[in-house]
Amino acid sequence: MSTARAETIPLTRDQLLGLAARAESYPFLALALAAMPRLAEDGELRLQVVRHYAQLGLIRPALAEIRALPAALRAQLEANGVCAQLAGLPDGRVPWERLFGRFEANRHVLLARQPELSESLEAGLRGLRALELYSCRDGNYQLCAFNDRDERVWLPRLMDHRGESGRLAVPREANAALGSPVLLEGLNLGWFLPRLMAETAKLFLNYSAAVYVIEPNPLVLAAVLHLHDWRELLAEERVRFFVGPDAFERFKALLLEREDLPLPLRYVRMASWGAGPGGDAESVVHALARHRAQRTEQMKREVEAIYRGRDMAFWARRYATAGEGEPLRVLLPVSRYTTYLKYCMRDLAEAFERRGMVTRVLMEPTDHSVLPPAAYGQAVRDFRPDLVLIIDHFRREYGGMIPESLPFVGWIQDQLPNLYASECGRSLGRFDFFVTTDPSLFVHRYGYPASQGLAWTLATDDRTYGHAPLSDAELAPYRCDFSYASNQSAPPERFHEERKRQTAGDAGVAALMDRLFEELKAGFQADAVTARMSVQWLLERIEDREGPVGLTPEARESLLRFYLDPLAELMFRQSTLAWVADYCDRTGRTLHLYGRGWEQHPRFSRYARGVAANGPELRAVYQASRINLQIIGTGAIHQRMLDGLAAGGFFLIRRTPPDFAHPAVGAYLAAWRKYGAAADGAGADQVPELYEALRGLHALMGHDLRPERFKADPATTAFYEQIEAGGFQRVAGAVFSAYEQVAFGSPAELAELADRYLADPQARARVAEDMRRVVVSRYTYGSFVDALLAFLRRRLEQMAGGPTAPAGASESGPEAREVAHVLS
User: Fold this and answer.
1) Helix axes 218-227, 118-127, angle to 10 degrees
2) What is the pLDDT of residues 708-753, one digit of tens each?
3) Are 775 and 645 in contact (CB under 8 A)?
């Protein structure tokens, strides 16, 4: 717990006089005033008190001290004109009436949020009449009262309140994902709270930590609201005030009622005066934690009882017969603290509802809330869903709050450690299903159940991103020649250093990452496409030259997936963006970059336009930009382009092999069908078409494959057949007939296409409409919902009749699996 304290240590007279000789008035006065009762007749010491009061601008207290001097000393000061000089200065006192307008403005904002504080503020306001307020020359305020001997008593003490508040540490958390709330005991004179609010704001995306203020003394709050303009601070929902002798009880009651408000794990105690604390913060928080743990266990028992006995046959019947009379009920939990997923869930819920289902999106209600496990259980208990669908998470992460016998779908959209893990695959039960672009990768590498995966790419909502033209007024702020929307704004060097810091001090891994970074950077300078596509073989190339690097298979996988692959993607995107920036600088065209962090980039900062909000604002960006850019090394069909095309935007696309891999896949399948399983173990001269087709696939990905024998791989072949049957849903060159008209692979090709389309708006409109029609027919949330429900009905019916053998469950060869993964 951080605590603001000024210890008063008794000093001898000589020590006090030595301290008085220094320029630091606050320490001297705090100690000297504490010593006055025993040194009351010490004129020399009182003179020093007068001097330091005067230095701070506390003239009225200085004159009071002069009146308490021995008569001879007082007469000497009068004779020297000191008294007259001091009397002619502003005395430092500030009438409360002068600041009453500020208090009223603050009170209006605070009571709009917390009307229960009205009585406390009135009581505090009445009590202020007995207090004097002073303003020091250094900007500090000081409060004082008078005791029964008519002696001035500074509250809580005479001190550098502002300076001490600036030096007081805000407690940190080493491993907190978001940052827990802070409990502030005591306001002091109000200097610390604004800094605390600033340092707990926007800790992760839109998340800011809650701040709970416990102030037992209503006088303190009333005083502070006179001293500072806190209207903006007081309007923030995340700060709550608990005032009066029952402050801790009020705090406890709120956190019992609002379980979405997390418990504080950080505490700051300020110097206080008046009423005692009325409680112990940590004891109250521990009691709340015990209550929440008990509620979690109770909620778990309740939801298990509701779904107990609902077997596969029950669900097969429920999905088969659901309709208008008893529609399916779909629970869609999602975190508020995401850049895209919360909007995805919003659009997905609308798609379910348009098909007659009842939905509930479960999300934190405010930007300082964190849903506890019991909240998920309560949603299941109250809503009684027939399906739970969550993006990027699975049932095991919810502490038993989603019963094992309730159908659950995890939609994998991002490369996250909790998903790319064998522990996750093994955790999936009979009622767990998953959606991903490449189910086979998760089946063969991480043990996901093969029969329970649905292959699907991302989707857009053609209602949110309607193509009806917006007005000129709506489009005007966003008009430009080129725009690009992405949060991948970190320079590669900074990304590299940040990931190195996450190696927990492993010098060997850090050194290896340095070698990989230089190797990848050199590869991009030579051929960016090859460097991007062949990144999964970069470690092997280093080992061919230098020998084994000594990593476990898990460590290799982690290094590739969470360091090398995102680093290569960052380099691919920003090297391409540099072509566009160079073109704009050369021709005078405009470039707008939307997303977090571009304003800090050394090359691209001047094109930064901040964050464009999902929905109407991005729709305006897509329509207002003459050319939108799609730059993704693993293929163009991605959320931003699907949304932009649905909105009627025109795109130029950075050419990349996954976007034109369909002929190579087709050639491989044709050769496989010719030779079949007999090809296993055959030499290149025995199955030449198959061998060359496989080499062609690998060449697309930047890898020169030259095995002596062909290894049959039915599982990977089944995957290729799956994406072929789906019409190459993730292959832009296969689904967009206009792909070759908008794809560029060099600065010269970019300049040629830009010159052509910037000069021909009709051509832009024709291409954009052709691509939009494809998106609306194949990539909407409605299409996804139809496919998902058909898949679930079919699988539940099959599983109700007994377990089915997973298709294509044999282990894939490592080389073919890597190619399949990139193509997906």
Assistant:
1) 80
2) 777 767 767 777 887 787 788 889 999 999 999 999 999 999 999 9
3) yes
Q: Facing residues of 267 across strands?
A: 183
Q: Output the six-digit token pair for 538.
A: 């970069």
Query: Which residues have CB under 8 Å from 588's CB, separation 6+?
Result: none
- Residue 58 tokens read as 């506390």
> Which residues, 6 or more positions from 104, have their beta carbon under 8 angstroms from its beta carbon?
none
Q: How many CB atoms sit inside 10 A of residue 782's CB?
A: 19
SS3 per residue for 615-669: CHHHHHHHHHEEEEEECCCCCCCCHHHHHHHHCCCCEEEECCHHHHCHHHHHHHH
Residue 768 Cα distances to 486, 645, 741, 757, angstroms: 21, 7, 11, 11
Q: How far is CA 741 from CA 232, 526, 654, 663, in A?
A: 52, 26, 12, 18
Cβ within 8 Å of residue 261, ≥6 positions away: 181, 210, 254, 255, 368, 369
Tokens for 366, please give them: 């405010």
The pLDDT tens digits for 45-100 are 888 899 999 999 999 999 998 888 888 888 888 888 888 888 889 999 999 999 99
For the beta carbon of residue 19, count every other beta carbon within 10 angstroms: 17
Q: Name the pairing type of β-strands 387-391 and 408-411.
A: parallel
Amino acid identity of residue 270, one-letter, is M
pTM for the whole structure: 0.78
Q: What is the Cα–Cα distance from 632 to 630, expressed in whole angstroms?
A: 6
How, if at all, do strands 2-3 and 266-269 pair? parallel
